[in-house]
């Protein structure tokens, strides 16, 4: 599973955003089913960011999202964002990371 989040960070909150993201990442890398992720910043529009994460399966992702620790960790990160964020979950169907199912 791949999760994509398109985000817009509030001007002047970039350092707070990255710091709080790293806190979330520290927990995520130890969470069962988490396979990796990347945080990217737009070259053309520095206020726009892309966050991708990889999960073993949908069940792992659902457990992560429901985890009380996750909820508490993402609050400071989300406080740095504008409300026009977009999140979607994708099943990888082809490529080197694709799995049947």
Write a structural description.
With 101 residues, the protein is α+β, with helices and mostly antiparallel strands. It has a single domain, classed as Alpha-Beta Plaits (2-Layer Sandwich), CATH 3.30.70. It is built from 3 helices and 4 strands, in the order βαββααβ. The chain has a 4-stranded antiparallel beta sheet. A hairpin with a 6-residue loop joins strand 2 and strand 3. Helix 1 runs antiparallel to helix 3. It is globular, with a radius of gyration of 14 Å. The N and C termini lie close together (10 Å). 12% of the residues are buried. InterPro entries: ABM_dom (IPR007138), Dimeric_a/b-barrel (IPR011008). It holds the Pfam family ABM.
What characteristics describe this protein?
4-stranded antiparallel sheet, about 30% strand, Alpha-Beta Plaits, alpha+beta, about 100 residues
Query: What CATH architecture label applies?
Result: 2-Layer Sandwich
**Widest sheet: strand ordering:** 2-3-1-4
Number of strands: 4
Largest sheet: 4 strands, antiparallel
Q: Could you please say which CATH topology applies here?
A: Alpha-Beta Plaits
Low-confidence stretches: none
Distance between the termini: 10 Å
**Highest CATH level, the class:** Alpha Beta
Mean pLDDT: 93
Q: What string, H for helix and E for strand, traces the elements in order?
A: EHEEHHE
Question: In DSSP terms, counting alpha (H) and pi (I) runs of 4 or more, how many helices?
Answer: 3
Helix fraction?
A: 25-40%
Range of strand content? 25-35%
Q: Kindly report the oligomeric state of this protein.
A: single chain
- Radius of gyration, in Å, reads 14 Å
